[in-house]
Amino acid sequence: QLQFVESGGGLVQPGGSLKLSCVADGFTLNYYAVAWFRQAPGKEREGVACVSRSGLTSNYADFVKGRFTVSKDNAKNTAFLQMNNLNPEDSAVYSCAAIPSTVEAVCRMSWAYSYWGQGTQVTVPS
């Protein structure tokens, strides 16, 4: 069974930081692009960031640029989302997702990602 196992969510004060991790289980992350999404109560899921198969290229939603950093460590089969300067609007369930990719240095949050993590809650109180 192919899956992502997420960790790292929690409660953090405004201005604080969290680092989310996703470990690929049953597949090799070397061949996959990875994206992070979030969904807040009553809102649609939105793309946050993505990183290419090689890890060399990343893209970000405007609302996280300069605050969040996406990365992947293929040797550890793990993807990360470092989140800094968090604010209450960042509160949501964050999920990672992967898609097989033949392109080394491209990623798009609009792709149809195949494998998803279970989601982890991030809460930033107002």
Structure in words:
With 126 residues, the chain is mainly β. 0% of the residues lie in helices and 47% in strands. The protein has no helices and eleven strands. Strands 2, 4, 5, 6, 9, 10 and 11 form a seven-stranded mixed beta sheet that branches. Strands 1-3-8-7 form a four-stranded antiparallel beta sheet, with no helix packed on it. A hairpin with a 6-residue loop joins β5 and β6 (58-60). It is globular.
Features of the shown structure:
single chain; 126 residues; mainly beta; seven-stranded mixed beta sheet; four-stranded antiparallel beta sheet; globular
Short description:
By secondary structure, the protein is mostly beta strands. The protein is 0% helix and 47% strand.
Question: In terms of topology, how is this protein built?
Answer:
Layout: E1 3-7, E2 10-11, E3 18-25, E4 32-39, E5 46-51, E6 58-60, E7 68-73, E8 78-83, E9 92-100, E10 115-116, E11 120-123
Parallel strand pairs: 2-11
Antiparallel strand pairs: 1-3, 3-8, 4-5, 4-9, 5-6, 7-8, 9-10, 9-11
